[in-house]
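From the pipeline queue, job 12 of 40. The input is one protein chain; the requested action is below.

Action: predict structure.
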Amino acid sequence: GLGGRLDATNILSNVLLTLITPIGIDHSEYLGNSLDSVAKEKFAVMRPKVPAIFSGGDEDIETIFLDMAFKKSTSAQVLPRLCSYGTARVSFNGTDVYVESDCLRTDYHTPLIGTHQTENAVLAIAGACALKSFYKTGFENITFPALYNGVVSVQWPGRFEIIKKGIPLLIVDGAHNPHALEKLAENTKILYDSKSFNLVVAMMKDKDISESLNVIKKMKGTLYCTQIPGMDRSLPAKDLFAMAEEKNITCAGKWEDPIRAVKESLASGSDTVCCGSLFLSGFVKENFYE
């Protein structure tokens, strides 16, 4: 869904909690072209008198969140004001997270890979705790062991998901806008440092392709341009290739068939990260082993 006011989840009744993850510009044709406008659309998902927690962001965005919550008589919290947290380690096995409040420190491990998954995990933990504290009954089973087991066993398909574990690795990641690609760039820097890797990329025509390519360029991986077969919304591989070359991104070539692009990339011996579209992640997962 789009998230926020226009999201399909708004048909749900009996909502008990609202969690809002970090905000970036996406779906601008519906949500607006500025962070402020996107934030207002996203925060509109809050329900009157239902607790809400926001991951946080710029001071101006947090102010919009708190103002909108006040108008709805919503008990609202901004995550960094609830507790201190951070990433202890990121590896191909997952992410080690710590949470501190008062004199207590708790360590967690999630199999989800990336520094941004720290914030996601802590937001989920805070949400579970909010359910237990806000509602007097119904959530007695939310205990520390339950929280730990939830974090350590979570699965999230298409989010830096390793679908081929032998050397070289094949990874699919749903990053499809500059905000998400920045997170991917941050994590590939941690995981690969100066080691080379490849990127198989397809993008939708309605995304901010130019700025996305600026972020991809920073990753310094070799780019394999592709497209989603049978999808008019997908930017043709030849157009993506031309735009990437204009930005002096190192390109291996262009392929209309994503699976062929993936196999050509893996044949080079380098780990391969597929990104740029959730449609690409889904296509590769469904068709790579056929």
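Job complete. The two ends are 29 Å apart (CA to CA).
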